[in-house]
């Protein structure tokens, strides 16, 4: 795997921070696209002339592409190395966005199916970022710092999403959708250059800090699948808050759009801070599954309370949405760290691909199903689904693995 670069001189322990920054930048570039394009929903519907049903199809397509391809990218990362896969994914994603800027703008009559299929392909290409950047960070950091580092990498997701949400609507209004796709392509190319320049294979001395891999593939391990499926279930309340909390507060509580925006941005920022805290905390206490289980229980309780109080005054709804949303953001880095550690060094990419598959499948299904659930029941039914999913995740999680000896403090 990239032996030429594995033997490069002068890649000392401090180079791991450049690797982390590069991985986080790649993750942010992907998130700006993945989370930024849905923010343009109202403009997409108006400019392309889509119906609301067609818009729902288009906005769910990128998550579908990610979910369908994550495991394949994980397998390829383990086989070919994180550097090659991350470079290939970022460059191909940038080229796809550049092509979309020329052919898939409202200047041409575009059926929803054409834009949707393009976004599925874009998601499938962008999925390479998750496993490859995660594996790179895992192999450069020792166990005593790994959860903190992975949580920092995962914090780039809401940060990139916030950048896309702030920038893309302004770009679309000022310069059209061609400028939107070109800007996102530029982000990918900048991240690809940083990957080429800074992301190299970790020295062999750092790999033993990941426990030795069993010969059994993560695809065949029940404990790996339990953690991955629990992660997918925990994604349900997160996506329910991110995609439909605004609609709930606007339609049911008559909150202004500015108030809703402040609330959702606050949830993202507090959730990002919680990701960093949870990674550092579990590095110190070596209790990742226990913390994820507690987060699942608390998220489930707050969402169930929201279901019971869905007709209560707006203040109660806002408080419970904040609690549910922040908690549902807090576990990502810890879960990615734990599943890669469980799988071991040679299978970590595959394991990250498995959990990425369950997470992005939930990210696709949750907003797709909520309108149907609303039609069949009420907002109480939506938050009931979110709460029960979180509680099911807490029950499904595997037990805490055997505590390994503490890592040597001077390891990189």
Write structural notes for this entry:
The protein is mainly α. The protein has two domains: 11-210, MFS general substrate transporter like domains (Growth Hormone, Chain: A); 221-402, Up-down Bundle (Growth Hormone, Chain: A), CATH 1.20.1250.20. It is built from 16 helices and no strands. The protein has helices at 3-6, 15-39, 41-48, 52-80, 82-103, 112-126, 128-140, 143-175, 177-198, 222-253, 257-285, 288-308, 314-329, 332-343, 348-376, 379-396. Helix 2 runs antiparallel to helix 7 (128-140) and helix 12 (288-308) runs antiparallel to helix 16. The longest helix is centred in the middle third of the chain and has 33 residues, at 143-175. The protein is globular, with a radius of gyration of 21 Å. It starts with a helix and ends in a 16-residue tail after the last helix. The model is unreliable at 1-7 and 403-412 (pLDDT under 50). This is MFS transporter.
Helix content: over 70%
SS strand fraction: under 5%
Rg is: 21 Å
CATH topology call of the largest domain: Growth Hormone, Chain: A
Number of strands: 0
The secondary structure category is mainly alpha
| CATH fourth-tier homologous superfamily of the largest domain | MFS general substrate transporter like domains
How is the biggest beta sheet arranged? none
Q: Can you tell me the number of structural domains?
A: 2
Total of DSSP H or I helical runs spanning 4+ residues: 16
Q: Give the mean pLDDT.
A: 85
Q: What's the level 1 CATH class of the largest domain?
A: Mainly Alpha
Choose one word for the global shape.
Answer: globular
Which CATH-level-2 architecture of the largest domain?
A: Up-down Bundle
The low-confidence parts are 1-7, 403-412
Order of helices and strands: HHHHHHHHHHHHHHHH
What is the CA–CA distance across the termini? 21 Å
């Amino acid at each position: 795997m990239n032996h030429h670069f594995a033997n490069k001189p002068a890649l000392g322990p401090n180079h791991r921070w450049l690797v982390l920054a590069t991985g986080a930048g790649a993750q942010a570039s992907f998130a700006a696209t993945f989370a930024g394009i849905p923010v343009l929903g109202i403009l997409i519907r108006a400019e392309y002339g889509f119906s609301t049903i067609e818009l729902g199809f288009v906005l769910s397509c990128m998550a579908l592409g990610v979910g369908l391809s994550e495991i394949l990218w994980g397998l390829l990362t383990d086989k070919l190395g994180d550097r090659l896969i991350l470079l290939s994914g970022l460059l191909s994603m940038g080229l796809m966005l550049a092509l979309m800027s020329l052919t898939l703008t409202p200047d041409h009559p575009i059926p929803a199916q054409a834009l949707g299929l393009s976004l599925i392909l874009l998601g499938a290409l962008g999925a390479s970022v998750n496993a490859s950047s995660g594996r790179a960070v895992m192999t450069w950091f020792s166990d005593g710092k790994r959860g903190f580092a992975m949580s920092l990498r995962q914090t780039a997701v809401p940060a990139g999403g916030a950048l896309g949400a702030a920038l893309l609507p302004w770009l679309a209004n000022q310069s059209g959708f061609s400028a939107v796709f070109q800007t996102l392509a530029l982000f990918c190319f900048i991240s690809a250059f940083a990957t080429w320049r800074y992301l190299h294979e970790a020295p062999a001395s750092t790999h033993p800090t990941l426990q030795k891999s069993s010969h059994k593939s993560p695809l065949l391990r029940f404990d790996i699948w339990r953690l991955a499926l629990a992660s997918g279930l925990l994604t349900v309340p997160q996506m329910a808050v991110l995609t439909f909390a605004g609609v709930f507060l606007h339609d049911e509580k008559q909150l202004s759009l500015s108030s809703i925006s402040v609330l959702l941005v606050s949830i993202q920022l507090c959730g990002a801070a919680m990701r960093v805290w949870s990674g550092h905390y579990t590095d110190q206490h070596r209790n990742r599954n226990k913390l994820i289980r507690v987060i699942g229980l608390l998220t489930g309780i707050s969402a169930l309370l929201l279901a019971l109080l869905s007709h209560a005054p707006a203040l109660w709804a806002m408080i419970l949405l904040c609690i549910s949303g922040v908690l549902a953001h807090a576990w990502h880095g810890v879960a990615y760290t734990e599943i890669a550690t469980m799988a071991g060094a040679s299978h970590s990419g595959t394991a990250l691909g498995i959990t990425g598959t369950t997470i992005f499948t939930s990210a696709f299904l949750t907003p797709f199903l909520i309108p149907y659930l609303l039609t069949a029941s009420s907002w109480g039914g939506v938050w009931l689904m979110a709460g029960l999913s979180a509680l099911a995740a807490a029950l499904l999680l595997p037990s805490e693995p055997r505590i390994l000896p503490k890592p040597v403090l001077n390891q990189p």
